[in-house]
Amino acid sequence: MKLLLAGSTGYIGTEILKQCIAHNYIQRIYCLTRKPLDQHWFKGKNGDKVIEILHENYEEYPEMLLRRLREEGVEGCIWALGGNSIAQYKNIDEARRVSINYPIQCAEALARDVATGLSPQAMPKKKFPFRFIFMSAWGAEQDQFRSLWLWSDSRKIKGTAEKGLFDIADASQEIQGHKCFQVIALRPGQVIAGGDAIGTLLWEATVPSIAVDRLGQTAIRQALMGTGDEKKRIIENKECLGEDWAQVNTFTF
């Protein structure tokens, strides 16, 4: 599989990139980035899997770029760009631009000009549909009129992005009875480093949280296989933790 990755220089994106390089079923990772990647990504036996795409404006996608992604058979995108809190931005306008405009503009371009090239007739060996995995956040709220006690602006921004992306998927071209573009939103809680097995276990069991390596695994798994149900679009934090947690993490938040 060939994947487009946005946010490869960030905390979560770096982990996803590392796992993609090591993954046997991922042939290429196209990293959409404003600044050059560290050269260590291109070294080692799997270094040729990484393709750097320098891209300055995340609100515009030139025809040449989209044609390249289409012709080279890119089959999905993991969007790990941006933060979960307004505090990470200069102001709320910047937060909305990065967290809403950027992923929506990218998804619109991919749905229109890349996903349609993965039809079973045109590329029978490629994955179908094109999957856009969006890194949302725990508590994301699509209802902009709902009163929220905690992190209202941050949660509503993520919810607005989710709704916009789902609308793009709904409006995408239908091929052989199925939409050619699918969006799956992951809603992780606090993303922690992991490493300490016992500490990670206790943290994930008591507050909405997930180790970054586990989140990376979930994102890649969804890009490869999807949810198994076209109607299921949101993967909550507990589901991101994986089936192994079904009997361990029984807390309700």
Overview of this protein structure:
With 253 residues, the protein is an alpha/beta fold. It has one domain: Rossmann fold. Helices cover 36% and strands 18% of the residues. It has helices spanning 11-22, 63-71, 92-113, 152-171, 197-206, 212-225, 237-240, and strands spanning 2-6, 28-33, 50-54, 76-79, 130-135, 174-175, 178-179, 181-187, 190-192, 209-211, 234-236. A hairpin with a 2-residue loop joins strand 6 and strand 7. The N and C termini lie far apart (36 Å). Residues 246-253 have low confidence and may be disordered. InterPro entries: NAD(P)-bd_dom_sf.
Question: Key terms for this structure?
Answer:
253 residues; 18% strand; 7 helices; two-stranded antiparallel ribbon; NAD(P)-bd_dom_sf; Rossmann fold
Topology of helices and strands:
Layout: E1 2-6, H1 11-22, E2 28-33, E3 50-54, H2 63-71, E4 76-79, H3 92-113, E5 130-135, H4 152-171, E6 174-175, E7 178-179, E8 181-187, E9 190-192, H5 197-206, E10 209-211, H6 212-225, E11 234-236, H7 237-240
Parallel strand pairs: 1-2, 1-4, 2-3, 4-5, 5-8, 8-11, 9-10
Antiparallel strand pairs: 6-7
